[in-house]
């Protein structure tokens, strides 16, 4: 065999070996359940689309399970490994006496993600304008509703006396109800709030996130037994999220929008970028996955003032920052 043929032969063999090695990389499947699909969770979609999870050897099977109660049921039953949901759900479950404690191990968002949308355009909005109005609120016992009540009370409004408060509509149907004519004001997540502005259905007049301060609004949690059995998976998962959090704050909003657009195919990319920028400006995306004790206490204060806190829970009992601290160094 001539030398050049031998070289080509060896190069071909090398390529086959390299491709085989890449193809044989062992991937660990992780079933993740998100409580809703929202641009509010941009870092999660970035971690998937940019391949951060894949580089950690994790294959993410993502499902959307509307409602915190349903998401937690899936977690407790083993239908999913990790839940992305409000930290308050871990308190509810623990108060009911769970055999396998739930641990919050990585924080994704650190403020409320809802906005106050008015049916009419208001140039100089004041919270007192809500008094006597019909307000389409969020589901009782959920973080959006509790933060909403916390903010209203902060501005001297008793939501159960000063408003015609509607809370009997399923989370997934609230936006549709408002679009159909129910309520003068509504509490909405993005991108729905901005879509309603575009379509002239409503107008964003205030942010509940900027009013309520930092809270562990949306957190990754898992059963204690899962984290004990798969600490390597938890660390790799958290590292991918941290990389995505960095990307969301460091990259132009347009680049972030491009990365997450596959998860919002029916939403215009310019609108996605606008929403990303809005959430970044009020620092709704957590800048690292560490859930600190001050945020935990603020969460319980909000729940307590809403009359929804079963009992105060020790930070150390329900929060594990081992992985978040390690990847944030």
TrEMBL record:
It comes from the Bacteria. The keyword Signal applies. It holds the Pfam family NMT1_2. Keywords: Signal. It is found in: Periplasm. Its main location: periplasm. Residues 1-21 form the signal peptide. PROSITE patterns: PROKAR_LIPOPROTEIN. GO terms for cellular component: periplasmic space. PANTHER family: ALIPHATIC SULFONATES-BINDING PROTEIN-RELATED, TAURINE-BINDING PERIPLASMIC PROTEIN. Belongs to the bacterial solute-binding protein SsuA/TauA family. This is ABC transporter substrate-binding protein. It comes from Ureibacillus terrenus.
């Amino acid at each position: 065999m001539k030398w050049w043929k031998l070289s080509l032969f060896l190069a071909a063999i090398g390529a086959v070996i390299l491709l085989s090695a890449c193809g044989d990389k062992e991937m660990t499947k992780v079933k993740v359940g998100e409580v809703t699909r929202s641009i509010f969770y941009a870092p999660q979609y970035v971690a998937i689309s940019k391949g951060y999870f894949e580089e950690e050897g994790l294959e993410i099977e993502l499902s959307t399970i509307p409602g915190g109660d349903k998401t937690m049921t899936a977690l407790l039953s083993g239908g999913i490994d990790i839940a992305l949901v409000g930290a308050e759900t871990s308190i509810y479950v623990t108060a009911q006496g769970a055999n396998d404690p739930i641990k919050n191990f990585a924080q994704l968002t650190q403020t409320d993600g809802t906005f106050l949308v008015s049916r009419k355009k208001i140039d100089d909005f004041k919270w007192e304008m809500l008094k006597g109005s019909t307000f389409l609120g969020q589901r009782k016992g959920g973080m959006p509703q509790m933060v909403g009540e916390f903010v209203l009370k902060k501005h001297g409004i008793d939501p159960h006396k000063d408003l015609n408060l509607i809370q009997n509509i399923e989370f997934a149907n609230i936006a549709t109800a408002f679009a159909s004519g129910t309520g003068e004001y509504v509490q909405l997540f993005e991108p729905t709030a901005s879509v309603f502005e575009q379509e002239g259905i409503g107008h964003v007049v205030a942010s509940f996130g900027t009013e309520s301060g930092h809270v562990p609004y949306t957190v990754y949690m898992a059963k204690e037994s899962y984290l004990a059995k798969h600490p390597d998976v938890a660390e790799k998962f958290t590292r991918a999220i941290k990389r995505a959090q960095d990307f969301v704050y460091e990259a132009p909003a347009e680049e972030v929008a491009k990365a997450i657009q596959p998860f919002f195919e029916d939403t215009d990319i310019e609108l996605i970028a606008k929403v990303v920028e809005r959430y970044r400006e009020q620092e709704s995306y957590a800048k690292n996955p560490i859930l600190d004790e001050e945020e935990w206490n603020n969460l319980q204060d909000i729940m307590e003032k809403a009359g929804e806190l079963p009992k105060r829970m020790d930070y150390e009992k329900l929060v594990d920052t081992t992985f978040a601290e390690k990847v944030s160094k």
